[in-house]
Amino acid sequence: MSEIVSEGRGLSLVPRAEGKQTLKDFKSDQEVRWCPGCGDYAILAAVQGFLPELGLKRENIVFVSGIGCSSRFPYYLNTYGFHSIHGRAPAIATGLAASRPDLSVWVVTGDGDALSIGGNHLIHALRRNVNLNILLFNNRIYGLTKGQYSPTSEVGKITKSTPMGSLDRPFNPISLAIGAEATFVARTLDSDRKHLQGVLREAVAHQGTSLVEIYQNCNIFNDNAFEPLKDPGIRDDITVKLEHGKPIVFGANGEKAVRLTRTGGVEVVPTDSVPAEEILVHDTHATDPSLAFALSRLDEPAFEHVPIGIFRHIQRSSYDELMSDQLDNAIAKNGRGTLHDLLNSGDTWRIN
Amino acid sequence: MTKQVQQLDRVIIRFAGDSGDGMQLTGDRFTAETAEFGNDLSTLPNFPAEIRAPAGTLPGVSSFQLHFADHDILTPGDAPNVLVAMNPAALKANLADVPRGADIIANTDEFTKRNLTKVGYSGNPLEDGSLGEWRVHAVPLTTMTVKALEGFDISKKDAERAKNMFALGLLSWLYHRPTEATLKFLEAKFAKKPDIAKANIAAFNAGWNFGETTESFSVSYEIKPARLAPGTYRNISGNMALAYGLIAAAELAELPLFLGSYPITPASDILHELSKHKRFGIRTFQAEDEIAGVGAALGAAFGGALGVTTTSGPGVALKAETVGLAVTTELPLIVVDVQRAGPSTGMPTKTEQTDLLMAMYGRNGESPVPVVAPMSPSDCFHAAIEAARIAVKYRTPVMLLSDGYLANGSEPWRLPEVAELPDLRVAFATEANGEDGTFLPFKRDVETLARPWAVPGTKGLEHRIGGIEKADGTGNISYDPNNHDLMVRLRQAKIDGIAQDIPPLEVDDEGGDARVLVLGWGSTYGPIAAAVRRVRKAGGKVAQAHLRHLNPLPANTGEVLRSYDKVLLPEINLGQLALLLRARFLVDVISYNRVRGLPFKAEELAGVIQDVISSE
User: Fold this and answer.
1) Contacts of B467 in chain A (CB under 8 A)
2) Count of alpha carbons within 13 angstroms of residue A303, beta-carbon side
């Protein structure tokens, strides 16, 4: 299979801001209407705090969202924004990003929006590798419709629509994204601003679609869903921080390590029980997605050990660039089309 | 041998065969020859949705009808003068349309016992006298083709496949068609397979020579070129014209064209055509589904492109929510619906006008959308430009209702001069429009009620839009009851106001004393106009008017309807426009409805019109 490759323009066509920007520049005049205590506030603050660092012209940044609590996000940023239809943000953003290489286009979505009603658009955006940053707020519940289970809720979830417990197995968004040929896949946490911004930094620099799953607490309908990752007593024991090029070791004192199994999976072992060379060294750039996929399955059963950070980050031409290249090549080869020539093409005849 | 040459003023030929027999190609080539010769013409391809239905069966029959004349004509014709039947299935499926006395050219090689049985013939109709009232020309097309190609280094199968070119050669001789273009076409089509190219050319020539020498055809026919208006012409199908219209609209608006589309019959050819024209900076995006197609087009429109999505009825159903979003965010968008027979999958390759009410009302909430419908294949070009004009000027989605008949049918088209085409340029917003330098994304133009089109990348105009109700002016989220009532009315008023910006409904009433008006919309123009001619020729008085704008209707529509005693409205649906007109104008419109997946026939409509006149 031969792949068409582009130069990798990334964000180089997005104009840069002239002066220094601050968090305040990115705050809109709209009153934020999430429930008090919602994890969305922390993510909003983290993004608003991160955008000045990008140094892009504010007017060249667009946030597109679907429907749901998280999808109100664009209203609170003083950039261009489009609050669209349930599940369709990746499609709308694709049209925008593909036709405007001078824009930095972001998608804000939730677990219901991206993985349920909009699942099809998400997987196709990922495989196309359109230049988008997708922030998937995963709170494992439906918030705006008041508390039904979501496609990331654990089996047996008792909700208004599942009084005897939910029956269907949840998606693992990271596994799904890797399976959908994603080129950048990461997970972070609403409450860990530093980690969140670090992941965003890499996601924005990435050429193509970056998918960032953000564990986000819904304090009304699914409070403390990610508490184990936040509880100072246990978080270090279960959080597996993935860092490219480093051996995967975790635990308060680095007492746990990840190594390959004979069947190609990964497992957690006491660090001192294995030779150092057997500890898996994280490689986000591996072309083969198998290890990234295996790592995404470490969190089974849930919250025993949870990898966060960047799972996969590979180079592949982005759809929008390839599309632009085709137009440029067609024009370079045959010149810009003219309407007169177009109409007069084919078999014509004259009547005098 | 010198053969007699007879002059005719018009001819209708139908080529019919198996889906794999190349009937569409044969028809296309004969059409090209006819166009080059200078006749007026109109075509009707008719083919199954299945790519290759089982060979020799009735569902597998594909046909192509061509009507050409020495005068201007309006339809592909009601009844063929000549049927070319490549097999028994083609004969059986089409015979009912062929009047007695007409010519039937049948490929005897395919009239085997097995093939006859397959379609329910107990005997061979070519031999049992059952076709006694037709002029049957029994020609062993396959055998003669294979024989003509004996010296060629090709397989027997390839030789047999050239039989459609033999038939084309024969028909080309019969009607004195110029052949050079077809020979060139074959060379180009098979440029990579020169043996096949040569064989097809040889088959074509053999067919021509057969006509000249055989006793089966004692007469050949001449149909003089039509006297059409001076200009440069080309033959064009509706889908091609529509694609060109979209390209032209983008050029005239000086906006990049973005097409988001998902393949669907009978609209896919527009996607195919636009995909070829990257030299115009056109981005064509084959989406994962219909919803993504329109979503991407709307996203591109938000970014300042001319956003277009092309589909058929089932796709429009899926796109409804996004069209509603375009209504409320007031962004330009063109939704092309090449209507086909429904409901559901229906009959994908057959035509209908059954999506009018869906185009008008198929969304939640009060979501008015302008609707434009082309009236002929070449009018698809101008209708696309008109749809774009309305979309960009009024910042609204526009439904463009073509149909399967227009999409695949073709006619000669006098090419417009680019300078004659309308200027569609619009200005993006570049600066604040509110007090204190604020930007009000929903502050309207006083004349058009359109809101500013402020595209990302414009400094100082950062704003957020979305599907939630917006406050008048600021566009901020608003649940205020009175504001919602106002916005609903403003969106409606904006669309209603377009009536002042479209031409009035014109009436063709020769003597000015007709009491019956026959009204139509969309693709029925040709058959209705042809029927009106017949009625007038027979001394009947009838007026004709045709609607290209279905929403809003031309401002004088009510006045026109009320000025006639009777209004007859033929539609290929169960009376959708009639419902709208009755509701809006309280006029007792007389509907005539047939929903057969086929266009009306002129004779049929002439009878209906005559009946209405007689009942006066």
Assistant:
1) 67, 83-85
2) 12
pLDDT of residue B278 exceeding 50: yes
**CA-based R_g, chain A, Å:** 22
Residue B589 has pLDDT above 50, yes or no: yes
Q: Write out residues 379-438 of B within 8 Å (CB-CB) of A.
A: 415-416, 418, 421
pLDDT, tens digit (0-9, with 9 covering 90-100), for A139-186: 999 999 999 999 999 999 999 999 999 999 999 999 999 999 999 999
In order of start, what are the domains of chain B with their CATH numbers? Answer: 4-222 (3.40.920.10), 234-420 (3.40.50.970), 507-614 (3.40.50.920)
**B233, B288, B468: residue with CB nearest A120:** B288
Q: What is the pLDDT of residue B47?
A: 86
**What are the sequence ranges of the domains in chain A?**
23-232
CA dihedral B141, B147, B153, B157 (to 10 degrees): 40
First-last CA distance in chain A: 54
Q: Tell me the helix, strand and coil percentages in chain B, rounded to 5.
A: 40, 20, 40
**Model confidence at A248: pLDDT above 80:** yes
Q: Is the distance from CB of B465 to CB of A83 less than 8 angstroms?
A: yes
Whole-angstrom Cα distance, residue A65 to residue B294? 16
The closest of A193, A156, A195, A151 to A173, measured between CA atoms, is A151
Q: Is B536 helix (H, G, I), strand (E, B) or coil?
A: helix
Rounded Cα gap, residues A134 and A140, in angstroms: 17
Query: What percent of chain A is predicted at pLDDT more than 70?
Result: 97
Among partner residues B289, B297, B305, which is closest to A120 by beta-carbon distance? B289
Encoded tokens for A225: 């869903």
In chain B, residues 152-181 whose CB comes closer than 8 Å to chain A:
181
Q: Do A344 and B232 touch (CB under 8 A)?
A: yes
Listed by number, the residues of chain B in 70-109 with a beta carbon closer than 8 Å to a beta carbon of chain A are none
In chain B, what percentage of residues exceed pLDDT 90? 95
Single out the residue of B263, B253, B190, B267 nearest to residue B22, CA to CA: B190
Least confident among A9-18, A35-44, A98-107, A194-203: A9-18
- Give the pairing type, strands A104-110 and A61-65: parallel
Asked if B308 is an interface residue toward chain A (Cβ–Cβ < 8 A), one would say no
Mean residue pLDDT of chain B comes to 96
Nearest-Cα distance to chain B for A251, in Å, is 43
Give the distance from residue A4's alpha carbon to the nearest chain B alpha carbon, in angstroms.
Answer: 17
Q: Is the ipTM of this complex over 0.90?
A: yes
Across the interface, of B234, B288, B457, the residue whose CB is closest to A60 is B457
In Å, what is the CA distance from B145 to each residue of B115, B183, B202, B381?
Answer: 20, 17, 9, 40
Answer yes or no: is pLDDT of A13 > 60.
yes
Phi/psi for B367 (5° steps) reads -135, 75
pLDDT of residue A7: 59
Confidence of residue B467 (pLDDT cuts 50, 70, 90): very high
Tokens found for residue B199: 């064989």
Which superfamily does CATH assign the domain made up of A23-232 to? Answer: Thiamin diphosphate (ThDP)-binding fold, Pyr/PP domains (3.40.50.970)
Q: B390 and B326 in contact (C-beta within 8 Å)? A: no
Cβ neighbours of B421 in A, within 8 Å: 339
Token duo for residue B310? 């092309």
pLDDT score for A1: 40
